[in-house]
Each structure stands twice: as C-alpha cells, then as structure tokens.
C-alpha cells in the first residue's frame, strides 16, 4: 500500500503542506491564504472568480477567505467602471510584503523537496505533475 500512487501523492502533499505551514507559522495565515497571496503577487488586480479558478477554491469559500484577508489588511477590493459585479482584488503593501515572504518559503520548500534531483528529473517531474493535473481536471469536468 505504501508504494501506491494515491498514497504517495497524498502523503507527499500532506508533508509538503505541513512543512510549508510551519515555515509561515508566524504570519498567522490560514491554509487557503498563502496560495492566494502567491497568485496575486503575479496577477494583481484580478476578479475573485479568476483567483478561485486558479487556486482551485470554491467561490463561496473564496469569498470568506478574501473577507478575512481584507480584514487583516492584506488585500483591497476595488469596483472599477461602476460595475458592482466586477470587483477587482489588489494586494496592499502589507499583503505584497507577506506574499513575497510566502513565495520565498515556497521556493525554500521546493529546493529542500527536490535537493537530490538533477535538472532533467525536475523537468520530468513538473511535466508528469502537469499531465496528472490535466487528466484529473478532465475527469472532473467530464462528470
């Protein structure tokens, strides 16, 4: 059982997540917030729906996570062009600083995780994970 693909994927995810959250513990971020900060660092000023899709978070959950982030001063919501349905999300200066810290922690975790991998193995792993993701997304959308 310990060598089955599903077991290895779940175990590796949980170990990575646990180590990552320990690395950002002093920030008091909740589990969904780091990936949102990381996404906004490179896609600032996007609508909530785009963030939810990119981060694989349900829209209702996204609303509550963003509300908490706004309360903490990490993001701003801006209504552009008078369209109340299109609210754009922006990082504040504090949010940008925190996002950079999160990105640094992600990079450190990736380096530790892949320390014994050569460049070609890293590229292959990335390609395999992307194919797995594509296959799973195809299965979910087919249902």
TrEMBL record:
GO terms for molecular function: DNA binding; DNA-binding transcription factor activity. Residues 1-134 form the HTH marR-type domain. The keyword Transcription regulation applies. InterPro entries: HTH_MarR-typ (IPR000835), Tscrpt_reg_MarR-type_CS (IPR023187), WH-like_DNA-bd_sf (IPR036388), WH_DNA-bd_sf (IPR036390). Keywords: DNA-binding, Transcription, Transcription regulation. SUPFAM superfamilies: Winged helix' DNA-binding domain. Pfam families: MarR. The keyword Transcription regulation applies. This is MarR family transcriptional regulator. It comes from Sporofaciens musculi.
């Amino acid at each position: 059982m310990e060598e089955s693909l599903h077991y290895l994927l779940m175990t590796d995810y949980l170990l990575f997540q646990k180590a990552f959250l320990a690395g950002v513990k002093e920030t008091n971020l909740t589990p969904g917030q780091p990936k949102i900060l990381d996404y906004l660092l490179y896609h600032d000023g996007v609508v909530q729906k785009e963030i939810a899709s990119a981060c694989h978070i349900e829209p209702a959950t996204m609303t509550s996570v963003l509300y908490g982030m706004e309360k903490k001063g990490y993001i701003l919501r801006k209504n552009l062009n008078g369209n109340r349905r299109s609210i754009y999300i922006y990082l504040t200066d504090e949010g940008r600083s925190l996002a950079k810290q999160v990105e640094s922690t992600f990079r450190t975790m990736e380096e530790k995780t892949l320390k014994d991998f050569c460049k070609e193995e890293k590229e292959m792993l990335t390609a395999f994970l992307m194919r797995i993701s594509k296959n799973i997304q195809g299965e979910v959308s087919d249902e």
